[in-house]
Design brief:
The protein is an alpha/beta fold. It folds into 3 domains: 2-82 and 298-325, NadA-like (Rossmann fold), CATH 3.40.50; 88-206, Rossmann fold; 209-288, NadA-like (Rossmann fold, 3-Layer(aba) Sandwich). It has 16 helices and 14 strands. It has helices at residues 2-12, 27-30, 39-48, 60-69, 86-89, 93-106, 121-129, 140-150, 160-169, 191-196, 214-223, 237-242, 249-258, 271-280, 304-315, 327-343, and strands spanning 17-22, 35-37, 53-57, 75-77, 111-116, 133-135, 153-157, 177-180, 199-202, 228-232, 245-247, 264-268, 285-288, 322-323. A 5-stranded mixed sheet has the order 2-1-3-4-14, with helices on both faces. The N and C termini lie far apart (45 Å).
Length: 344
């Protein structure tokens, strides 16, 4: 009944609503998506439509980004307001401000802040205010290279793993990087360590990609000789270092698509996408790197019944769960976002 009503309302509201589905969504949501993709791509597609309602089947920071890019007459809706992101929640503006002040108090060197796009709008605004930039997993190398050309130190948040592997591949030694943990006194680092470090990484991580390990890679290579390992760059340094392919979701998809028929892949990312890839590329064997169900539990909060409730509310001209970024935050965040788009 729920799926049938969603289908009927989607057809009825086709000129008013665009439904965006992130790669990690469950199939019962993806089946209704007009556009499927990564978070930034979806927001950019929303900005290209003239439909007044953007139903973003993703998580909160993604809907915020869509609101930043869409026109004033458009409303961005998140079917379940509880669909957040554990990584984004690990970096709060107040804590980043404390970290920023701590760094500045011990060095006169110019610091460039870079935030991964997986964060709240107020952190995007922070980097906009401080001559910094936003990055994605696709353009992290390009953005960090730019940052290091602009300043002498880098503050990267909220994902330590993406920051670490990207900086390492750009030639920065691991011993030149430190991790600032906001849950510890003084971030768990000394003034001397801050002064010496070239890169300060925030203690943040993706709960899904944290679940993949080097032991899993070793097991797959032992049990499936010749297997290719493809993982997201949000995985830890040891995992990414041992993979054949690492990068964004789109890069992983493209790598699998381009591989010869008969290739076997173990993929280290969210299981809904892995299962979908296995169904799509039937000429290849595609397995999850982990034996466990690596589900993005917050993304999974967007259930068909909440999508239906959002569509019903739009039909009644009483939209619910509208995501609105305050103008002052939006303006500063867009400085950083536009800088990223220009550099990319």
């Amino acid at each position: 009944m729920v799926l049938a009503e969603i289908s009927a309302l989607k057809k009825e509201l086709t000129n008013q609503v665009i439904i965006l589905g992130h790669h990690y969504q469950q199939d019962d949501i993806i089946r209704f998506a007009d556009v499927i993709g990564d978070s930034l791509y979806l927001s950019q597609q929303a900005a290209k439509t003239d439909r007044p309602y953007v139903l973003f089947c993703g998580v909160h920071f993604m809907a915020e980004a869509a609101d930043m890019l869409t026109a004033d007459f458009q409303k961005v809706i998140l079917p379940d307001l509880n669909a957040g992101c554990s990584m984004a929640d690990m970096a709060r503006r107040a804590d980043v401000e404390v970290c920023w002040q701590s760094i500045q108090s011990v060095t006169s060197k110019k610091i460039i802040p870079i935030t991964y796009i997986n964060c709240a709008a107020e952190l995007k605004a922070f980097v906009g205010e401080h001559e910094g930039c936003i990055c994605t997993s696709s353009n992290a190398k390009k953005i960090i290279s730019w940052a290091l050309s602009q300043g002498e130190k880098l503050l990267f948040f909220p994902d330590q793993h993406l920051g670490r592997i990207t900086c390492y591949e750009l030639g920065i030694k691991l011993e030149e990087m430190i991790v600032y943990d906001p849950n510890k006194k003084n971030g768990g680092v000394t003034k001397e360590e801050i002064a010496k470090a070239k890169v300060i990484l925030w203690y943040g991580y993706c709960s899904v990609h944290q679940g993949f390990s080097a032991e899993q890679i070793a097991f797959m290579r032992q049990t499936h000789p010749g297997i290719k390992i493809a993982v997201h760059s949000e995985c830890n340094f040891e995992v990414v270092s041992q993979a054949d392919v690492h990068g964004s979701t789109s890069l992983i998809i493209d790598a699998i698509k381009a591989a010869p028929s008969g290739t076997t892949f173990a993929v280290g990312t969210e299981v809904n996408l892995v299962n979908r890839l296995a169904k799509k590329f039937t000429d290849k064997t595609i397995l999850s790197l982990s034996p466990y169900q690596c589900i993005c539990s917050t993304m999974y909060r967007v259930r068909p019944r909440w999508l239906l409730a959002s569509l019903r509310a739009i039909k009644e001209n009483k939209p619910i769960n509208v995501i609105t970024v305050e103008k002052n935050i939006k303006d500063m965040a867009n400085i950083a976002l536009n800088r990223m788009l220009k550099l990319s």
